[in-house]
Amino acid sequence: MTLYFLLAHQCTLRQPGLASFNPDEDRILLVEEHADDLWREGHQHRIVHAWSIQRHFAQSLHPNEWPNVYMKKDRFEQGLDHAMADSPDASLHLHWPTDWHLRERLKNWIADNPAVNVNFSEETGFIIPGKDWESHLPQNGSWKLDPIYRQFRKTYNILMTPEGKPEGGAWSFDKENRKKVPQDLTFPAPAIPDQDAITKAVIDEVSAQFPDTYGDAGTFGQPVTETGARQLLAHFISHRLVTFGDYQDAMRQHDPYMSHSMLSAAINASLLDPMDVIKEAEAAYHDGLAPLNAVEGFIRQILGWREYIRGVYLVSMPAYQEVNALGHNRDLPDMFWTGETRMLCMADTVTGLLETGYTHHIQRLMILGNFANLIGAKPQQVSNWFYTMYTDALDWVVLPNVLGMALFADGGSMSTKPYVASGKYVQRMSHYCKDCVYNVNEKYGPDACPLNSLYWDFLERHEDRFRENPRMKVIYKHLDNRNEEDLSKQKDTVASIFSRLDGQKL
C-alpha cells in the first residue's frame, strides 16, 4: 500500500506520481491545516482558498477509482503521523514542493520517521523541470529574463512561425502594452464561480475560527475546482484577453480586475496546467480573437516571468530570503493593513486587496512595492506581508517578485535597475492623481505627492550604487540640476513625510 500525500496546492490528478496509483491498494492522503500560527497573520481568502480546494478535490474523487483519506489537523505532519500509525507498513509518495519551507517540513518529518519508505516525484504545475534551472541560471552568470524567454519560445514552439521566427517579427510587444485606460471604457467582469455549499461552509468556519485575520471571508471570489478554473479561463480568452495587452499596466480606482485574467491563484494551486493556458491564448491569436500584443504579453507572464522567478527561487534559496542589499530597516506603516491614508493610489490598492485578496501586477510593483522601497521598508517585512495578504501567494512566487523585482533587495540578481518611480508614473498609468488630495505636479511642501520627494530621496540615499547604472544616468543628471533652494525644500518635505508616516497620518 502506498499513501500519496498531496499538499493543499497540489490537488490535481495530473500529479505525476499518481500514474502508478493502484485503487485496490493505495490511498490519496489530504490534510487540512488549522494551526493558528499558519494563518493568523494573513488574509481570510487564503484560508478559504486552500480548504475549499481540498474539500472539493476530495469530493470529486470516486471512491472506487481514487480512494482517499481526509483529515483536519493543526499541521500536515500530524496527518502523516496518524496515517502511518493506521498503516505502519505503507509506503509514502510525496510530490516534492517548490517552496523551501514546505520542503524543510517534509525533510524533518522524514528524518523523524526513518522506518517509512518514502518515494518522490516533482510536483506538477510548471513547464521547466526544476533540475534544469542550474544550467539556465548559472551561479557565475548574469541572469536576464529575455534570453531565457526566447529560448523557451523556441523549445516549446510558442508563437513561432514555420520559419522559426517569432510571430510579428519581435519577441516582445511590451511597448504596446502601456496605455492609460479611458475613463468610459468598461471591461467584462471575470467569470468567477458562485460560492457553492462547500465553499460557504468553509467561509463560515474561517470567519468563526479566524475572526481577527484580515479581509472578509464572505467576499471570497476564486475558482476552487478545475471546472471553475477552466470556465474562468474560457471567459478570459473569449471576452477579456482582447484588451489585456493595451491596458495590462493601467490602473483605475475601484476596478482591481480590469481585463486581467484572474488566473494566477488557479494556476499556482494546480487547478490549471500552465501549458494548457498558454496554448489556449496562442489559439486565440491564430483564431483572430485577440491581438498579438495581448497574447504575447499574457504568454510572457506565464512562460517567461512565472517560470523565471521559480528558477531564481530554486537556485537561490535559502539564502535569498534574507537579502537586504539596500540596507533598508523601516517598519511597514499601518496603512498596508488598513488602507487608511490620504494617498489615493495606496488607499484604493490596499482596500481593494482587503476586499478581494487580489491586485494586479502593476499595483503590486509600482504602488505597493514602489512605496515600500521608497520609504526604505525592511524587505522581509514586505515579503511576509505579500505572502500573507494575497490569495495566489506561495513562497516561491513572493520572494523573487518582492525581494528581487519590487525591492532590489537582492542587489540586482534578477533585474538591472530598481523599479522606483515618482508620482508622475502613477499619473501616467492611472486616474488616481486627478482625485487625490495630494498634488502630483507639486514637488515640495505638505500638499505635494509624497512619491515625488520620496523618489528623489531614494536616489540620494543610494547614489553610490546607482549613479553609474547605464539605465539611471539620465535620472541622476536631473537630480544634479536642482539648486540649493530645491535641495532645502526637498529635505524639509521628506522629513515632514516621514514624520507624518510615523504618526500614521500620511
Q: How would you characterize this protein structure?
A:
The chain is mostly helical. The chain has three domains: 2-122, 3-Layer(aba) Sandwich (Rossmann fold); 130-196 and 212-316, Serine Threonine Protein Phosphatase 5, Tetratricopeptide repeat (Alpha Horseshoe); 335-502, DNA Cyclobutane Dipyrimidine Photolyase, subunit A, domain 3 (Orthogonal Bundle). Helix content is 49%, strand content 6%. It contains 22 helices and five strands. The chain has helices at 36-39, 44-60, 76-86, 100-112, 133-136, 145-156, 197-209, 226-247, 264-268, 274-286, 292-316, 335-338, 344-356, 361-374, 379-389, 395-406, 423-429, 432-435, 450-461, 463-466, 473-480, 484-502; strands at 2-6, 27-33, 68-73, 91-96, 118-122. A five-stranded parallel beta sheet has the order 3-2-1-4-5, with helices on both faces. α4 links the parallel β4 and β5.
H/E order of the elements?
Answer: EEHHEHEHEHHHHHHHHHHHHHHHHHH
Order of strands in the sheet with the most strands?
A: 3-2-1-4-5
As for the CATH topology of the largest domain, it is Serine Threonine Protein Phosphatase 5, Tetratricopeptide repeat
Number of helices: 22
Mean pLDDT: 95
Total number of strands: 5
Radius of gyration: 24 Å
Return the domain count: 3
The major sheet is characterized as: 5 strands, parallel
Shape annotation:
globular
User: What is the CA–CA distance across the termini?
Assistant: 61 Å
> What share of the residues lie within helices?
40-55%
Structural class based on helices, strands and sheet pairing: mainly alpha
Spans with pLDDT under 50 lasting ≥5 residues? Answer: none
CATH architectural name of the largest domain: Alpha Horseshoe
